[in-house]
Amino acid sequence: MITSDCDPNSLIESWGGELYTTLTMPLTTSITIGYSGSQWLTALFIGESGSWSIVNRMNLAPRPDSYINSSPVTTTLPVVMYPRGVPVVHIVQMADNDATDTLQCRWGTTNGGTNYNRNDECANVCLGIPAPYTLTRSNCTLTFTLPKASIYYACALQIEDYYSASSPYPMSSVPIQFLFYAYNISAGACATAPSIIGVRPNRACIGVPYGVQLNETIEIQTYCPGQTIIDLVTSSPYGMQHSAISNPSTGLWIMTLTWTPLSTQAGPQGFCAGAIDNSSLQSSPWCITYLVGYDSPNLIRPTLVQGSASPIATSAVGRPSLNNTNICFYYDSTNATVFCYDAGYSPNVIYTGYTIVIVTNYTWTPGQSYYVTLGDGFASGSVFCHAESLAITDKTFWRFDIWNPALSSTTTTTTAPPTTHTVTSLGTTTTSINTACTTSGIVVTITNASTTTTTVTTTPPTTAGPTTAGPTTTGATTESTIPVFYPLDFENACKQPVAIMSAITMVFFMPIHALAMYAAFTKFTNMYKPSNIAAKTRHKQRMQNILQR
Q1: CA atoms in the 13 A half-sphere facing the CB of 400
Q2: Among 267, 263, 270, 273, residue whose Cα is nearest residue 289
Q3: Domains in the chain and their CATH numbers?
Q4: How far apart are CA 301 and CA 293, in angstroms?
Q5: Are strands 252-259 and 214-221 parallel, antiparallel or unpaired?
Q6: Quick one: how far is CA 354 from the chain centroid?
Q7: Are 234 and 75 in contact (CB under 8 A)?
Q8: For 354-409, what is each residue's pLDDT tens digit?
Q9: Which of 252, 287, 253 lies closest to 244 in space, CA to CA?
Q10: Which long-range contacts (CB under 8 A, 24 or more apart) does 15-23 make?
């Protein structure tokens, strides 16, 4: 066992580690692996000094898509602290490398005759949280209230993956067991517990390559004078180093994480943290998943073309799974917010392959300049937990100007006294302009510019003058007739032969075209079907891992 975390805090006293073992097994293997023993804590609300048991199911039988299954992964803090008598909503993070699988979370049970593991999954701490409580299986959300202070409550869950929502049995079962601790808020404690405010959002998924050092910053906010952070409880992957907690400014506390992933750590690696202040108030857990061996998508600076401008990613992207992932438009001159869209659900943000399209009916101000920022995870990858793009806050990344028609127009005139003046001007549009391209810019998004043509007719002045009679000449006029074959005559002459040949060609090529289109679309469907692509990616990754070992 390789130690990854150790916390001497008297309320936590946790130790964690990892063990990697490589075994060769036949594809027919389906076994339960577990540990059991005694004894649990004496200060336990249910199951004090009792026995413990923890088991998981490993099934190497090929899935319905013919690939080997990847079990779900989950991460938690060893001890999560909540005040006594306060309703709690607690989310347990879970994810699966097989992105199309359906995940379910359930209570561990002692009945080995009915559960998937066919063994006692939790011994004396099954249903260790006092009623009333609820568990939402689809997202592993717990709601409960801890009735007694200065005591621990055990939580024993099983995370299971199903091939589809209609599958009757899971393909694997992964245990997670941890403790809640209830406390009375001490006199003089801050009314607000500390919170981890970034830099990443909670439950983010980050792609990290092998052998490249990762530097992650945890920022903690405190809200009262005298409130200090004394401990940061963590659950980390092996090899991650933690700096000391620093206090660079009032109310802000920072810890820096440094980690260089190894090839043996390929796949998902979880990290969780919880900040504890000097009154034993703990922040809500902050957990992220590092996807080792994968890169997060990056957004390329938008290329401005006539009629559109959209962010383009370095890999196929999709809508983020978390809300509050915003794209915001600002005034360049004042940095004031114009409007924002939440990419988690807004229909104004459209994801199409490698491109993200933003649609808006906002009326832009002529002559005004704007810029755009994108939140963490605005673009999510297509593999596993959908590794997320980094936030873009640089105001020069995507900046545009709105053309002002009052400052420019095109006028056509003549030097002689005209009878008609034609003035053509560009109407105000709800589009963006790139001033780097031309003087007035190139239209960038959403609607076509409207053109207004105004025709003014004038009569030039006339001047009276003398009339002079001229000589009269008489002559003969002759006419000659030249036969002309107009285009319409040619068209009429060719109508019948063209119609006959068109009908013959259509009848001949129609079945050939239908067969070709059917074959092409069938091939494209198999090539670009998300489940097939995901399965091939998983298979390739597994083969790489096997060869490396």
Answers
A1: 27
A2: 270
A3: 1-184 (2.60.40.10), 191-294 (2.60.40.10), 303-458 (no CATH)
A4: 25
A5: antiparallel
A6: 13
A7: no
A8: 778 888 888 888 888 999 998 877 877 665 566 677 778 888 888 888 887 777 54
A9: 253
A10: 16/78, 16/235, 16/236, 17/238, 18/237, 18/238, 20/264, 22/549
What residues contact residue 334 under an 8 Å CB cut-off, 6+ apart? none
Q: Is the pLDDT of residue 481 over 50?
A: no
pLDDT in tens, 216-233: 899 999 999 999 999 998
Beta bridge partners of 162: 102
Beta bridge partners of 290: 206, 269
pLDDT surpassing 50 at residue 20:
yes
As a whole number of angstroms, the distance between CA 539 and CA 409 comes to 61
**In percent, how much of the chain has pLDDT > 70?**
77
Give CA–CA dist 357/378, Å, rounded: 12
- Give the pairing of strands 286-292 and 205-208: parallel
257 close to 233: Cβ distance less than 8 angstroms: no
Q: Give CA 181 to chain center in angstroms.
A: 33
Over the stretch 145-199, which tens digit does the pLDDT of each residue have?
999 999 999 999 999 999 999 999 999 999 999 999 999 988 889 999 999 986 7
- C-alpha torsion 509→514→519→523, nearest 10: 120
Q: In angstroms, rounded to a whole number, what is the distance separating the alpha carbons of residues 204 and 388?
A: 7
Give every CB contact of residue 269 below 8 A, 6+ residues apart in sequence: 237, 261, 289, 290, 291, 292
Does pLDDT of 52 surpass 80? yes
| CA 489 to chain centroid | 62
204 phi and psi, to 5 degrees? -75, 160
